Amino acid sequence: MYIAIDDTDSRQGMCTTYLATELVKEFSEYQLLDFPRLVRLNPNVPWKTRGNGAIVVELGNGDDRNEKIGDLQDPIHVFDGEKDIDGQFFDRVKEIVERWAEFDQEGTNPGFIVSRERPDRELYEKAVKGIVELDEVLDILENIDCNYKGYGKKRGLIGAAAALSWSPDDHSYELIAYREREQWGTKRDIRDDDVKKLDKKIPSSFDNYDYEEEYQVIAPKSPCPVLYGVRGDDLKELQKALNIIKGEKVDRWITFLTNQGTDDHIQEKKISDLEPWISAKVEGKVTKAPEVIEGGHVFIELSDDNSSVTAAAYEPTKNFREIVKKLILGDKIQVWGGVRKDPLTINMEKMKVLDLAKKKVKVSNPTCPNCGKNMSSMGKDAGYRCKRCRTKADEDEAEYQVKERDLQEKIYETPVCARRHLSKPIKRVNTGENG
Q1: How many angstroms separate the CA atoms of 29 and 61, rounded?
Q2: Which pTM was predicted?
């Protein structure tokens, strides 16, 4: 039996992942037949609450106990076994959702599904890359063996169904530790030194700490139940975090299988095919030099054979903007990012320099071929003229020197503090982890 839930949180509190731990406790007579799943969907959806993540729990009658993946006062394991089970699930799941969801917060529209089967993966692909309408999801749910319920605008059903349809090509794990109930909403007690130590002792983990900004990425800033979450590619190594991070007591913890750090949201597109609310990778040449506007945002124009688009590195991307500023006309690059609607802009998440244009610096004006005197400029891009004998010369007749570029042909990424959950970090791109 699969249970999928989405959109129980708000910007003021709760976390849908917490409900996974409540489901495991509620259905303690059964076993987990797989890791609980944390599935992030399209990060550009305008009505999302925070991280646009949904959860799936798969329960059944397990045979052989497998790996330990959590502790809710009692150890939690995954099992091998059959999925066929009987029992009244719907009302028990409904009670959990209605107990914990942030119904009083605008924008919270929960949905849950109790199902014996999963929709085709095509639904996940559409939901992580684009926009899915509720009617489309309701049609799918009516044609599989499931019961479901949506609240408010019922958008949570979209995320729950899409998460249920995810079958991983690439994946990572996230160990999430939760706070004791009385600590919710208070300042978290996590020391920077511990997070830095975690970064070194668990090399398969990623996006833990931003050293330039001195910012802990494992700890959320919202008043939610999560104490911290550590993402990585080695299940056993992640559990070391529980002994490395000191300070505040952990109430419970569980490990999720997740699509975080996979770039599943990215579509390869031509610039002419870009549309709002998707995330894309496009290739082109820089056709307008970097422009810095008030607030420190940096913009370039990127063009291919037929079309152009503005690519932006906004202030939250911090030092990534300094890389973008080094681009010049003619540089060939690839850009990954989400597409903003108005004006149509691609907000950069990563950039790969494919081919650097030659940066020429003028050393001296041309010498007059008649009298040997240095010629004078007639204005920007207007050429040169000898003041004595009035001889003219073109711009390219000046003496130039090719200057070494302070850029390399490689991938550059936004800092950890500005990185989206789905964005694949360079360390995973380079190692090819899990696909």
Answers
A1: 9
A2: 0.90
